[in-house]
Structure prediction request, 313 residues.
Amino acid sequence: MKKLAMILAAFSIIVMLAACGGNGGDSGTGGANSKQISIITPYLSSVATNDIVESLKAQADAKGWKYNVIDTNGDLGMMASRMEDVIAANTDAIVIVSTDPNQVASQIQQASTKGISVFGADSGYIEGMAMNATSDNTQMAKLITDYLFEQMGHKGNLVVLTHRPHPGVLKRSEQLDAQLKEHPDIKLVTEQHVDVPGPIESARQTMESLLLANQGEGSITAVWAGWDEPAIGAAQAIEAAGRQNIIVTGIDGNSQAIEMIKAGGPLKATVQQNFSGMAELVAQQMEKVFNGQAVDAVELYAPATLITKENAE
Prediction:
């Protein structure tokens, strides 16, 4: 009996070691497929951000990774705290979505110290991150601003609706700033910050007030919005007020904006981002890191397309 007990004990140890070896490795397909990733954003209510998160979830499902999604509902302080939570829980990777990484720089360094890679999706890149996938925000802003200025005849009165805390929108706004300096006949009426969450309603209320304050013909020629949701809100306010000949543009290419462009209202153009392409880039680079390989680059761009009524179909 004693000999039989020793044989059974040895067999149990062999089984446990085999089980550990099958699930604990970081290299090869088995290691990559056993990963847990944490997706964190303050802006899940945004259509664009939600598209990216859903695409990241689909990529994780396809690769057999587990994931959890954390939305801090516009609270960047809470985002830092939740990042610390997942770092303490030893998540395998973190993806910050639509977030300025400078707001969580300390947490990114904490993750790096623990060997947890931090990826950005439609965010910026700072030292300590693995990489960021986004659109070329400067190029998108130039596309839409060139189009808008041409529609304005390179003169008139411009309202700007933006949200500079977002790193992508900040770059777009800075490109607009540069182009305004080159067009002295285009006058900036005002730049207004759009609240997030609730950007459509925030922009609609702001635009209603601006229309009341600027009732003269030509007092507002156009509205440049940093992304589609404030463009939608502004266009709704303009239509409700019965104002004619005010041009609105956005950036993102969300479905509601494209339908409004097709309908021929104030919203005339947007730049369609490739959100699923961003998620795919992040997932590809994450898989490389999980398998012990270097990323292709610290910032990668998914292509974007100018959408007007002519190609909105």
About this structure: The chain has two domains: 25-133+276-301, 137-272. The domain at 25-133+276-301 is CATH 3.40.50.2300 (Rossmann fold). The CA atoms of residues 37 and 249 lie 36 Å apart. The longest helix spans residues 2-23.
